[in-house]
Prior knowledge:
This protein is of the alpha/beta class. The protein contains 14 helices and 16 strands.
Amino acid sequence: VFFFSSRxxxxxxxxxxxxxxxxxxxxxxxxxWGLMExxxxxxxxxxxxxxxxYEGPTSKNPFAFKYYNKDEIINGKKMKDWLKFxxxxxxxxxxxxxxxxxxQTIQRPWxxxxxxxxxxxxxxxxxFAFMKKLGVEYWTFHDRDIAxxxxxxxxSNKRLDEVARVAKELQKETGIKCLWGTANLFSNxxxxxxxxxxxxxxxxxxxxxxxxxxxxxxxxxxxENYVFWGGREGYQTLLNTDIKAELGHLAKFFKFAVxxxxxIGFEGQFLIEPKPREPTKHQYDYDAAxxxxxxxxxxxFEDFMLxxxxxxxxxxxxxxxxxxxxxxxEGKLGSIDANTGDVMxxxxxxxxxxxxxKSCHNDVYCNEARRIRKRRVKFRCxxxxxxxxxxxxxxxTYWINGHSSERPQNCCKNIK
Length: 416
């Protein structure tokens, strides 16, 4: 029940008992976390789990912030203004705990009729119930995570419109805002050889149509940014790859997006998220310097900023803060996916930052970017398979505490 008790030996039995009691009150054969009830409102979800509030370092309540005091004044600003947390939809609500050697390990009780529009709507209500209780102010999404892909593009767009309508109502009800949206151009088999860089013009056109709709939905939800992540924009081997042609197609794709953004009056910032590899052997948006060079060479430098994920930076063989420093120096640090990797493995593990030095560097460069343009930081991380307990509240609460522990104060000292 109390997932980190084996790691944190100082955890008291009272905390475990409290969590068990909460589970007993919450989970029943008639209703799992209230999700089986017919009353489909935010209040019907996660019954028995309280709103996560600050109780101080001595608190033994696992559902409490020990260090994150959102109203504490630090260097003239509230802590919540230094640490603007955002919950990512896909890792938090769609990640199934699977890997290449096994099947899904996380069972989510609200996934009653997975793949249906009714379930998509139920899931988005669950997400906002979670975020409201956690006390975050922002969320992010992929198009195919909030609305299951249909048999045709038209059907997919209709589903997306309906789920976005519900999400917009929930944003108004809760005050939670959309940090950014993006399109999933990597999961469907049609994108096995890329989207914008695919040699098949049909796939290029389909990807363009999907991004067009995703930008429209992001605009409708008041998104502050729109992100491009080219997970399959790269190659597995150079033997069958025309790099010049593919990079030309990618530049044209971005130019189409910029033109359409201006046409519909979307005022959000376009962001590109660098990553060196995975799932392809080599991605064209390898690191911050590579992306900035590409933008300059194709007349797109003024239209894009970067969304930096330090876990991707270390995969490229750089220090954790390298891409943060490069993009900040160029005035192009637009947003941060504040996560880290595991030094013992060679892939993208999307873990919460637990190293104080890394967290402090993250905050320093984030505030360097704020001098140039108002920015937010998103803590996008997977809930590890063995740690998915109580709907994900425990790990999120624990790691927000970890990131808040004296680090805004340290950040202020470094800035001074």
